[in-house]
Design brief:
Number of domains: 1
Number of strands: 7
CATH architecture: Roll
Radius of gyration: 15 Å
CATH class: Alpha Beta
């Protein structure tokens, strides 16, 4: 794997691992200062660290825990810009309820090379589906 592809994949994987912690500073460090995160099917678009931080906090507020699994991305590097598409599966437990929620989709990313390494300039979540399910006690 070429070094740039590897570094872009690291950013995507870091996002997946860090979002479940609720500590948004490391997540925001993966975006440029004016980076954009979009969820078009919900009509949502957040530009800049402050807006992305508020959105992440709000969208995860009803979850007791969350874990994302990302598939390896298809990456195209063109100089200091990269595009990537990767599958994502996010599973979480709803607070105070024996119910889980699962979001499946594709992330379409544009990343740029900065002096601090590759960062998201734009991250778009394209929904495939959502599943809610009751949790089995002791299961």
């Amino acid at each position: 794997m070429p070094e740039d592809d590897y570094q872009v994949q690291r950013v995507i994987t870091a996002y997946s691992l860090l979002t479940g912690r609720g500590d948004w500073d490391p997540v925001l460090a993966l975006f440029t200062e004016d980076g954009v995160w979009e969820i078009p099917h919900l009509g949502l678009r957040f530009a800049g660290h402050d807006a992305i931080r508020a959105a992440l906090a709000q969208l995860s507020a009803d979850l007791e825990w969350v874990l994302q699994h990302n598939a390896p991305a298809l990456i195209e590097v063109n100089g200091d810009t990269a595009t990537a598409r990767s599958g994502i599966r996010e599973v979480g437990k709803l607070k105070g309820r024996d119910e889980s929620v699962e979001y499946c989709g594709i992330y379409a990313d544009t990343l740029v090379r900065t002096s601090d390494g590759w960062k998201f300039a734009r991250r778009v979540f394209e929904a495939v589906g959502t599943i809610k399910a009751a949790l089995v006690p002791g299961g």
